[in-house]
Structures are given as C-alpha cells and as structure tokens.
Design brief:
This protein is an alpha/beta fold and 198 residues long. The protein has helices spanning 19-23, 35-47, 66-73, 76-79, 109-112, 126-138, 190-197; strands spanning 53-55, 89-94, 119-121, 143-148.
C-alpha cells in the first residue's frame, strides 16, 4: 500500500499499475498522505508475520517517517538480540531528472546507507529491479528499495526480462565492463552515465 498506488492510477509513475486488478484491493490499496502512518502500520504488520511492501511517493517525503524508520524499524534486530525480524520493503522513487525542484528531487541514498539495521537496494535497470525486489520480499530484514525516477522512462533501463524465477542476491557486485586502467563503483541511474562516459 502507499499513496495513490492502487488502480486505476498505479502510482505517480504508474509503477504499480495493474497490481490491484491482479492481486485484489485487499492487498493493493491507497493509504492516507501520512508517511509516518504508512511506515508505522507496515512495521506492525511485519512484526506480526506479514511481509508488507509499501511505497513512499517520493524520497523527499520519507522524512516525516524517520522516527519510525530509525527508532523502530532499523533497531529491531539490535533491540531483540537478533531474535525479532521485521520483513518490510519500502519502495521509494528518488533522485532528480523530472524537474521536480526541492520537494521532488532529493537523493536520500547517502543518508540511509549509513543507517545500521536497514538493507538498501538501488537497481540500475529493469531486470536488476525485478531480481532485487524479489530478493527483498523474501528477506526477514527491512529493505529500502530506491528507484531512480530518471530510469522509469528510459529505453536503456528496459533490459530483457529474466525468467519469472530470477532473483538477484544482495551483497554481490555486478561487473558491467572489465578493464585494467580504471575502476568505477556506482549504482542506480549513474551506471548508465558511467557506461556512456568511458
């Protein structure tokens, strides 16, 4: 669930279009415009055995939910000596490109990459997004799944779809091009920019 994700709209970027029809309105539905409530209820669902996947409409809107994310979600394993799990996926469109100015263009990855207790996914193309999202939904730890808005409508990010069982494991780097002069480590929309620059 999340802000405007249900059909017929399917989110502001139409990334969830068709999911209500496929999975039903009890599983794919709109939430109020209240990020702290979205994350708070998702944490409650996760600790009671559900595996929620929620969307915060823009990375810029995640800040009202920081108390829930930092003090509740990220510290769940630590507070329980590793005994409590919180299998929650938070999908978040991030970054610039859409001419959204200060309230629709923030890159939040640097902040969350320094927060213990949260796993991060930040795919650079459609097939990696599918494989990483499936892996994230199977984890017992919280995942912030960042989707760069600049990739939603780009032809280069529309990679061939792997088979339906494709899962891309977390923690393993993908080597795009090998050489012996330069090493570039990047993620998200910058992968294509780096490919174009070398």
């Amino acid at each position: 669930y999340g802000e405007d994700i249900a059909d017929p709209k399917g989110g502001v970027f139409t990334a969830t279009k068709g999911l209500t029809k496929q999975f039903g309105k009890d599983r794919v539905f709109n939430s109020p415009l209240a990020e702290a409530s979205i994350i708070g209820t998702a944490i409650g669902l996760a600790v009671t055995g559900w595996k929620p996947c929620v969307e915060i409409q823009f990375g810029d809107y995640i800040w009202p939910a920081m108390m829930q994310i930092r003090n509740e979600l990220a510290s769940m394993r630590y507070r329980s000596n590793g005994n409590w799990k919180c299998p929650l996926v938070i999908r978040v469109p991030v970054g610039g490109y859409i001419h959204g100015a200060i309230c629709h263009s923030q890159s939040i990855d640097g902040y969350f990459m320094h927060m213990p207790g949260i796993r991060i996914a930040y795919p650079s193309n459609a097939s990696d997004a599918k494989g990483l999202l499936k892996a994230a939904c199977r984890m017992d730890d919280p995942v912030i799944f960042m989707e760069h808005k600049g990739l939603y409508r780009q032809g280069f990010s529309s990679t061939p779809e792997p088979d339906e069982n494709y899962i891309l494991p977390f923690g393993k780097a993908k080597i795009i091009q090998e050489g012996n002069i330069l090493t570039i480590i990047t993620w998200g929309a910058m992968v294509q920019k780096c490919i174009e620059s070398v």
